[in-house]
Amino acid sequence: MPNGSVETGKPYVRRVVDAELNALLPALPALSIEGPKAVGKTETALQRAATVFRLDDSAQRAVAEADPARLARGRSPILVDEWQRVPESWDVVRRAVDEDPSPGRFLLTGSATPTEQPTHSGAGRIVTVRMRPMTLAERGTGEPTVSLSRLLSGDRPPLEGETDVSLEAYAHEIVASGFPGLRHLSGRALRAQLDGYIARIVEREFEELGHGLRNRAALRRWMTAYAAATSTTAYYETIRDAATSGEGDKPAKTTTQPYRDTLERLWILDPVPAWQPVRNPIARLASPPKHQLADPALAARLLGVDVGALLDARPSGLPVPRDGTLLGNLFEALVTLGVRVFAQAAEASVRHLRTRGATHEVDLIVERGDHRVLAIEVKLARRVDDGDVRQLHWLADKLGDRRPDGIGVVPAALLGP
C-alpha cells in the first residue's frame, strides 16, 4: 500500500479502518466504503486502487451514464468513487462479481444513499465498510496505551500510560474537526470551511437526493436544534419545538421527518441506538436513540460556539434539556466517535443504555457477537470517584459474569483500537 497521498503527495495518515480493509479486500470481491463527505474515503481507497472512475467529475459521470458497463473494465482493484452519482454502477459491480467472484476486484465509495435504489441490495456480493471522522488517536492527540479490543476480550490488560492532554486541548479537538482535509486549518479559515460544509448540505445535497426544500432556513434551524441535543435522548418533538421557538405554528411531523431521513442518508446524523440485548436481564429498557452528528465540530459550528464559549459554559441558547454542560455533551460525542471506530475494528457494535424514567443510564455499551460486553461512562472530570461509576456497578450486578473486566479509568487520549 502506498505511504503517501495520491492526490496531494503529502504523507498518508493511516486510519484505523485501513486494517479492516487490508483484511477484507484480499478475501472479498467488492467493498463499499460509506461515510459523510470529506471523511477521507477517496484518499483511503486510492491507496489500493489500480483503476479509478470518479463519478463526481461531470465528464467521467457522463461517460459512465452512457456506458455503465465500462465501470467493470480495468485493472483491479477498480475504484468507483462516489458511486451514488450513477446508481446503476452498483448493479454493474454486482453483476461483474456474479460473473467473476475473485477477491480484490472492486472498491466503491459513497457519500449518500441514493433515492434511486439499485435493483439488488448487493448482499453476498458487496460488503459495506463504514468510515467515520478521525479519532483522537488518528489525529495524533495522544499515544494510545489502552486497547479497546483487549478490554473487550475480558483478559484484564494492565491500564497504563500518561497523558498531559488538558481540558482546553479536548475542547480544541471538539471544534477542530476530524475531517482530514480540515486538520491543517484553524481560526477563521476553519470556521469558513465548516460553514461551507453545512451550507452545501442545506443548499445542494438535499436537492441532489431528490428532496426539494421550500424553507432552507427551517432545515438549518432543525439541524441547530439537533446539535443542541447532542449526546441526549431528547424526543424529536422537543428538537422540533426548539427549532421553531417563538413561532405560532409548529411544522408537522411530516415536514421534519424528511430532514432526519435525508441527513441519515447523507451520513450526517449518526445516532447511537439503544441497547436491547437478546438475553435481557434488565427490566424496562427504553429505546430512543442518543443523538450524534457525524463530527462534533459540526455541532459546535451549528451552535456558534468556540473553545472559549465551551470552557466558559455559555448556554447554547436553545431549549433542549441536558444534564451538565454543552462541553460535557460534545466531549461525550468526541469519545463516542472514537469508541465507534475502535469497536468496528473489533467487530463489535456500540449502543447506549437507558431504563424507562432514566433511573439508570450508561453512556456506551460495546458488545461483540460472543456476548462480551464493555460498558463505558464518559466523564468530563479530572478525578473519578465512586459516584461517577455507580451506574457501572449497577450494570455489573445485573449482568453478573458477562462483564468480567472490572472498572478502569482511562483518559480519552489514551484509548485506541
Q: What is the element layout, followed by pairings?
A:
Blueprint: H1 16-24, E1 30-34, H2 41-46, E2 51-54, H3 58-66, E3 78-81, H4 88-99, E4 106-110, E5 126-130, H5 136-139, E6 146-147, H6 148-153, H7 167-176, H8 187-208, H9 216-228, H10 236-243, H11 253-265, H12 296-303, H13 307-311, H14 326-345, E7 348-354, E8 361-368, E9 373-376, H15 390-399, E10 415-416
Parallel strand pairs: 1-4, 1-5, 2-3, 3-4, 6-10
Antiparallel strand pairs: 7-8, 8-9
Helix pairs in contact: 1-14, 7-12, 7-14, 8-12, 9-10, 9-12
Q: Characteristics of this structure?
A:
single chain; about 425 residues; alpha/beta; Rossmann fold; 2 domains; 5-stranded parallel β-sheet; 3-stranded antiparallel β-sheet; 15 helices; 10 strands; about 35% helix; globular
Q: Mind explaining what this structure looks like?
A:
The chain is an alpha/beta fold and 417 residues long. It has two domains: 16-130, 3-Layer(aba) Sandwich (Rossmann fold); 136-416, no CATH class. 37% of the residues lie in helices and 11% in strands. The protein has helices spanning 16-24, 41-46, 58-66, 88-99, 136-139, 148-153, 167-176, 187-208, 216-228, 236-243, 253-265, 296-303, 307-311, 326-345, 390-399, and strands at residues 30-34, 51-54, 78-81, 106-110, 126-130, 146-147, 348-354, 361-368, 373-376, 415-416. It has a five-stranded parallel beta sheet with strand order 2-3-4-1-5. Strand 3, helix 4 and strand 4 form a beta-alpha-beta unit. The longest helix has 22 residues, at 187-208. It is globular and about 60 Å long.
